[in-house]
Design goal:
This protein has 128 residues and is mainly alpha-helical. Helix content is 47%, strand content 5%. The protein folds into two domains: 3-64, no CATH class; 67-114, Herpes Virus-1, CATH 3.30.40. α1 (3-25) runs antiparallel to α2. The structure holds zinc ion (ZN) (2 copies).
Amino acid sequence: MNKKNLFISIITAFIVLEILSISIMDSITPWAILHYHSIGLKIIGWYLIAQIGLSFLAMIFISALPDRPCPICNHDLKAFIPVYGSLVICPRCRSMFHKNCFKSKLRCPICYPEDEEKPDVLLDFRRD
Ligand SMILES: [Zn+2]
Ligand SMILES: [Zn+2]
């Protein structure tokens, strides 16, 4: 999911709507297809409009995200969403991570730093 792909999907959906409207409804208004009596075409029309709307929202969401690296994998949060999954926010420290990175750690590495995770079973063997 990146800005360029979202932009292409908006344009594609818009062009398809436009072509359908011009060829079937003889109208340059892209949503004219929604007034057509065929339920199939209405569904396609609504689907394309939903695609435009959702892509647009996703674009705004992506633009609003900060350019920060993920504290777990150290890759850019936005750029690596296709690789490491969507973003999750730790409810305690409000840090952002990739979903898959966060899952692999089981808990937030900022609230619970690595060195606190000592395997306590081994400690008993040290007494001699
Ligand atoms: Zn990550
Ligand atoms: Zn946290």
